[in-house]
Amino acid sequence: MLSISVVGNRLVNGAGETVRLLGVNRESTEYACTYGDVSSGPIDAGDAAAIAAWGADAVRVPLNEDCWLGINGLPADGLSAASYQAAIEGYVADLNADGIYAILDLHWSAPGTTPSGAQYPMPDDHSVPFWSSLAGAFASNPAVVFDAFNEPYSPAADGWSGYPVSWSCWEDGGCTLPNEPDGTPPSANPLTYTAVGMQQLVSAIRAAGANQPIMLGGLSYANDLSQWLAYEPSDPDGQLVASFHNYNGEQCDDVNCWNATIAPLAAQVPVVTGEFDEDDCPAGGGADPTNFDNTYMNWADAHGISYLAWGWLVLSADPTCDKLTLIDDYSGTPADPNGVALRAHLLALTPAAGATGGTSGPTTVTGTQPPSSNPPTPVETLAELLRAPALRRAGALLSGSALLEYAPSDAGTLTITIRHAGRLLARGSHSYSAGSAAELAVRATGTGRRFLRRHAHASIKITAAFKALTGAGSSASLTTSLAAGS
Question: Which terminus of the chain has fewer Cβ atoms in its 10 Å neighbourhood, N or C?
Fold first, then answer.
């Protein structure tokens, strides 16, 4: 029977053999319930088999606090909490039947009467009831791991100067935090809530009779594990695991930091990289042995560290290079670079897996067709961009691969800015000459890239303001509101 537990700094199966959790995140089960679905794409035996064909032995399943509990109007549009729970339980059974461990992750939450439609900095008043219910439902399944809270972070690091999350609060809760999701710009006198700490979640899981391993992500969106050991909660079962999230561009994203912080921790407790990916479009794609994905996986292999990439989801109209997606279809065709890198690496570790499936190269997204002999005006071109199927998701505009091509009749500058709640997420600007073809790429800011990772599929409206200035000083502009996932 498939089982997993912590022994020292290792995860082991029922025979006492070392296990590393290597696989994918089954993105969408945290947000699809907010519009009446359990997931985007199938979560069934076929999906489990496609993941297993990559040589994966673990899938992290993100969950929605309110959808599981059936509170604050969620799940939405006729989906019941019982149906949501049954679908998750069925998917876990399908995964286990294919020899895959399931990591159940509290991903989206919100305090009080606020529906859980995004990521919050710390657990809230519903998080203990959530874990009491979920842990109770899976207490008898030894092939499940619990991930207590996706990505704790301090709002003070995001501009909310009066609302820090210390390591002490991370452990025991009690700090006051704004009742605002990640990415919300600071404001005066916000509604607040009192954070619940990791110790309370561990205690709730154990009180429910569940003794499986519990993953705990550190601060800074689980990228900072520097004080994890010093503030490790008490667990009567001794089954705690450190969760690390590793994206290029974050504070701890290179070998020096991994050697200084992650390796020493992994010598004491098991470390599972709950999420990792790159979005910098390496020239050699996923096959480049020196890219971020392969560099990290090779380092983690050498240190006995587990890792799961984000995310197993088809984004049919989005560029796969910058977007954090692993597949081009649900049969498991890998998307470049992250899917290509992960699949090849896992199959190299498990050559007997005999996986099948195609490969794919990087996707190029072009906002409009190349200019014709009768070039459109800036306004016509911008309207065409907004209609382009590949750009219907707001996330595509943030990805860094949104291209606008046209042949202007006047010299001037085209500037595109994308903002959410006043915060600059992406911009592009290009000066052009009259009559010559021009191409503009919209590039995400550092804030935009982080925002995209966590909100690309939320029901979030992003306003894109497009402004073209001609050499004569006249202007044309369009503003549209783009809903992610629309």
Answer: N
Q: Which of 319, 337, 353 is the last residue of a domain?
A: 353
Q: Of 308, 336, 353, which marks where a domain is finished?
A: 353
Distances (CA, A) of 128 to 15, 105, 177, 301: 33, 13, 17, 34
Q: Within this chain, do residues 273 and 320 fall inside the same structural domain, yes or no?
A: yes
Domain that holds residue 132: 5-353
State if pTM tops 0.90. Answer: no
How far apart are the C-alpha atoms of 247 and 275, rounded to whole Å? Answer: 8
Query: Please, are residues 427 and 444 in contact by the beta-carbon 8 Å criterion?
Result: no
What single-letter DSSP state applies at residue 157? G
412 occurs within a structural domain: yes
Q: Are residues 137 and 277 in the same domain?
A: yes
What CATH number has the domain bearing residue 135?
3.20.20.80
The residue whose two tokens read 């809760």 is 173
List, as own/partner pairs, every contact residues 291-299 make where C-beta atoms lie below 8 angstroms and the sequence separation is at least 24, other chains included. Answer: 291/337, 291/341, 292/248, 292/253, 293/337, 293/338, 293/341, 293/342, 293/345, 294/341, 294/345, 295/255, 296/246, 296/258, 297/341, 297/342, 297/345, 299/255, 299/258
Sheet holding 461-470, edge to edge: 402-406, 438-444, 423-432, 412-420, 461-470, 475-483
Residue 338 shares a structural domain with residue 457: no
How many structural domains compose the chain? 2
Q: Which two tokens stand for residue 347?
A: 């199959």
Report the C-alpha gap between 84 and 222 in whole angstroms: 27
Task: Evaluate whether residue 372 is within a structural domain.
Answer: no
- In order along its 486 residues, the chain shows pLDDT tens digits of 899 999 999 999 999 999 999 999 999 999 999 999 999 999 999 999 999 999 999 999 999 999 999 999 999 999 999 999 999 999 999 999 999 999 999 999 999 999 999 999 999 999 999 999 999 999 999 999 999 999 999 999 989 999 999 999 999 999 999 999 998 999 999 999 999 999 999 999 999 999 999 999 999 999 999 999 999 999 999 999 999 999 998 999 999 999 999 999 999 999 999 999 998 888 888 899 999 999 999 999 999 999 999 999 998 655 556 678 999 999 999 999 999 999 999 999 974 433 333 322 222 222 233 333 344 444 444 444 444 333 333 344 444 333 444 444 455 555 555 555 555 555 655 555 555 555 555 555 555 555 555 554 443 344 444 444 443 333 444 444 433 333
Query: Does one domain contain both 416 and 301?
Result: no
Residue 373 lies in a domain: no
Residue 361 lies in a domain: no
* Half-sphere CA count of 136, side-chain side, radius 13 A: 12
Q: Which two tokens stand for residue 3?
A: 């089982």
Same domain, 101 and 16: yes
Same domain (yes/no): 338, 415: no
Cα distances (angstroms) measured from residue 280 to each of 224, 285, 403, 481: 21, 10, 16, 26
